[in-house]
Amino acid sequence: MSAHYDFYETPSSQGKEGKRALHARIYPKKTYTKEEFIEQAARFHHFSKNILGASLDILIDELGELLADGNIVELGELGFLSTSVKCLKDTDDDKQKIRAESVVFQNVHLRISSTFRKRMMHEMTLERVHSPLKKSKRVTSTVEERKEILIAFLEKNACITRKEYIQLTKLTPYAAMNELNSLIQQGFLRCRGTGRSVVYIQNKTNRLH
């Protein structure tokens, strides 16, 4: 198992020779709900889900009380939780009178311990994937030009997958799916298989030419 990541363009940042700089970002596989997290912990640590669920609720309640009272709370190897506040009006003079109502809660912060950080560095392995949520570069090709690219591909290959069509055309997954469906409706392509195993083949009775 490994964590997935992809490269994204960094806004307003230029790399060597004026090229757009890139940064790596984790592409999450899924978001675990509270119930799924508890079920995961119960499966591997042999505690009942009811006990773990009740314990988690108690911890959250106590954390809220202690943090709201202005304390810092240590969570073992995980690190420290603390709170921050902000001023609703600007001031650069410590003698200027600021009403208490002008200072409000801002956020809760988690400062990860060095022990937990080292644990992540030791246990995490990384694998690059192409995120379907990443914004693609602006596509300048026309539909007809993309048809020609598809024809050339199918002349060398028996079929094409949606992933391959995305790579060929630089379309977003959503746009590529719509275009493939349009080609099917026009009789240019036929699809075979279901789910992730779907492939697209040329309709011999109605060629793309």
Give a short summary of the structure.
The protein is an alpha+beta fold. The protein has six helices and eight strands, in the order ββααβββαβαααββ.
Textual characterization of the structure:
- By secondary structure, this protein is of the alpha+beta class.
- The chain has a domain at 143-202: Orthogonal Bundle (Arc Repressor Mutant, subunit A), CATH 1.10.10.
- Helix content is 37%, strand content 24%.
- A hairpin with a 6-residue loop joins strand 7 and strand 8.
Poorly predicted ranges (pLDDT <50, ≥5 residues)? none
Q: Look at the structure and name the CATH superfamily of the domain at 143-202.
A: Winged helix-like DNA-binding domain superfamily/Winged helix DNA-binding domain
Assigned CATH architecture of the domain at 143-202: Orthogonal Bundle
Strand order in the largest sheet:
2-1-6
The CATH class of the domain at 143-202 turns out to be Mainly Alpha
Q: How many helical elements?
A: 6
